[in-house]
Design goal:
homodimer; Arc Repressor Mutant, subunit A; Aspartate Aminotransferase, domain 2; 17 helices; 17 strands; globular
Chain lengths: ~500, ~500
Amino acid sequence: MTESILKRPQPSSELSANSQPLYRQLADQYRRAISNGVLRPGDRMPSMRTFMQRHGVSLATATESYRVLERAALIDARPRAGYFVRVAPAAALPAAAEPDPAVVAGTAQFVGIHSAISTLVSTYQRYPQALNLGGATASPDLYPTDALQKAALRALRARPTLLTAAGPDQGDPALRAIIARRALEAGIQIGADDIIMTHGGIEAVNLALRAVTQPGDTVAVESPCFFGLLQALESLGLRALEIPTSPSTGLAIEALAFALQTHPDIKAVVVVPNLQNPLGSVMPDAHKASLVELCARAGIPLIEDDPYRELVDAVAPPRSLKAWDTDGTVIHCTSFNKTLAPGMRVGWINGGRWHPRIGMLKFAQSRHNEQLSQVVLAGFLETSAYERHLRRLRDGLRLQRERMAAAVAASFPDGTRFTPPRGGLFFWIELPREVSSAAFFEAALDDGIRVMPGTVFSNAGRFDHFIRLSCPSTDLGRADEAVRRLGRLAGRMAAHAPKR
Amino acid sequence: MTESILKRPQPSSELSANSQPLYRQLADQYRRAISNGVLRPGDRMPSMRTFMQRHGVSLATATESYRVLERAALIDARPRAGYFVRVAPAAALPAAAEPDPAVVAGTAQFVGIHSAISTLVSTYQRYPQALNLGGATASPDLYPTDALQKAALRALRARPTLLTAAGPDQGDPALRAIIARRALEAGIQIGADDIIMTHGGIEAVNLALRAVTQPGDTVAVESPCFFGLLQALESLGLRALEIPTSPSTGLAIEALAFALQTHPDIKAVVVVPNLQNPLGSVMPDAHKASLVELCARAGIPLIEDDPYRELVDAVAPPRSLKAWDTDGTVIHCTSFNKTLAPGMRVGWINGGRWHPRIGMLKFAQSRHNEQLSQVVLAGFLETSAYERHLRRLRDGLRLQRERMAAAVAASFPDGTRFTPPRGGLFFWIELPREVSSAAFFEAALDDGIRVMPGTVFSNAGRFDHFIRLSCPSTDLGRADEAVRRLGRLAGRMAAHAPKR
């Protein structure tokens, strides 16, 4: 998008005929580019060096131009990344409503979400060309394809029997040792033997549920809730009790405390503490501490599903719930699926006081993970490559989120509410109450865009006028335009729908 | 072992001074080498060409020498493989007893095998240097390490995003298409969409059990039974009813028919029809047909666990149970873990009439398999490499089995019974009744050899004086000697144990 400016350098001699100082003339030129949409929210500004070369100015002039734009709230500096066109503040949309912690969704119910999801999947599979804003992974260019490919080639050459020799039951020891060291950053103190590698994070969550529940038991979950968890509960014959969850601070602790008192059949609590899916909320440290303490006191296992922690937009990602665990109450589940490689099914679990039982269940269910991807991962994690990749991934996602937020704010109708996520790739958007997300899902597909309707994020039918949008997996320009089309569609549907 | 003869060529001039014809003198020389143990049962004889060169004789003489040895029952010709020293007929040991089909083991019982297996594992882990005759895969040199490594390097170069892009839910479509074509050889007519890739065969069996049972239900299993299945039943809260199983013809159909009448709570039957683990039996076609018909008539799902079919020692491996299925009664589970690559966790399932439910369970439990190993496998199966590998694997295993059988027959005490398996790598040996396999297991470990005690092959304590030996994963000479030591150990234990 910045190409038109980048390719059309304006020599400073032309500008200097003007009576204004040079730095201000240049700032005005960029101000116009921003106001007429040549530069768009989230676009990267030229580096200082490029700016100096392009306009034939000194560092002092370049710096002063950027200060003018920064003071005018048109651009933002970002550490290590440079300057970016500021995103129209998402405050243009009202923040999502905070849930009423007194409203726990009725009673615990057996989960029956599968047929709705099947219908959803078979519907969108009829539109293979649709732009996918309903996915769960970042765009492919944000993952380190080349580096992982090279790591895999190295691993195969160094260890030719990776495919023909069976691996250790718990997973590759070298990888587990590296993971144990890295877990310190999440505040988790464990050894390599406290880790069992799993086929992705979802196998870890399934094993945790199987270790602590029997069919018919009730599990407290966040509301809205990642539909993959609802499917796991359904497949295990469990009931879900949906606990109000804040779009900014995550699970409402008081609501859970109340539920534990009134529902003695709750046998586990499942929480995504960092970048809840779909809300994008991050629990504050004090909430994390309270939650762990509450579950420990009640003697209820707390299953932490934490695959997004390293995508939180912060210099140092927050800690996991497990950091506050003193007696093995927390079962920690995570994976490298979202942060590193959607094609690698490498997750891990620390089972707290249920660790031996989880080891038995994992062995009985699927034996050890394949060695190859574990060795590739160990090689990648050993160097600084993973940290560099994470910084790049977070920067890339931030840019995409800012553009998406601007497009949503600019195009969705009155009555839309939205709290910007704290990182990651999900947008949980409340549409005007008149708009059914199921109808919106179908109409959007007809218009060539796939979204996730809110209906599949609750077993109790609570989010019918919500949608989840994901950062695009293709080019940003096409996604911008798609989001604007979605906004207009929502506007039309709100205008024509009978008020409810 | 043949080195001493191979390196000490006997020129025919020295021999021809003898009054006997040359071909007979040469045959006598080899007869002596066999009788004094220089050539051992199962050893490969020199090829015709080598024989001619070494002894400076014509093809006619070489052929005649081998005919003499063959008529004397000292060597055997094997198609495409050459001549081998004949194995002392295993008839030296009485065949294992046929089970009494009227004796179904008491009542269905909840499975409690895990703690016994844990103890077993932690015991043998204290002897990491022990020779492993308790494993479940063939020796590493029988798997195509180089070819698979090359296939993996090719796959990674051709498709760099294999690690970073998520794959299709059911598994790689190209691989499923190839598997569907190959399944015709097992008598199975399915399409690529009727296949779901799984993390090894054990995940397939777990999914099948979860699809058709609830905790507390009873499952009919073979007796003796692969302990991995007993662990799966235990982890799913199921009861096992052990059905008598013949060491030569597999599951006793009449016994199952009787059990189905008397136990209306049986919700599934699990059978390993080809090379039952640990028995090594293969069900005759007529039995397969009856079994499928029996289950179909009773409306009971028949879960077929068929990972060893291609290891059956035959020109054309037998068909799967699924070949006789007309109404979706049979759930077919298998993997490439035993036949191709123990390091690859690639299995698949056809769920018969429960296929959609199994697809849901697989997605909820662990999502799709990793793409990389599936693409490697597809590349390998597409060529003739897999068939060539299978022939080599079967030949290698046959040689190992024949030597093992000879060593067992030569060294185990009176009262030992044993039916040679029809292929594969397992030996199920009945020790004299006085010998406890648990004590034998510990004493053997002390002597540096790991075996599997019979106790873990039944939930009803039925095989206390049995052991399972596997073909060795290291050099055959060491294994021969180890089996002889085991035989002497069994002899001592039988002599000193109180009669029971």
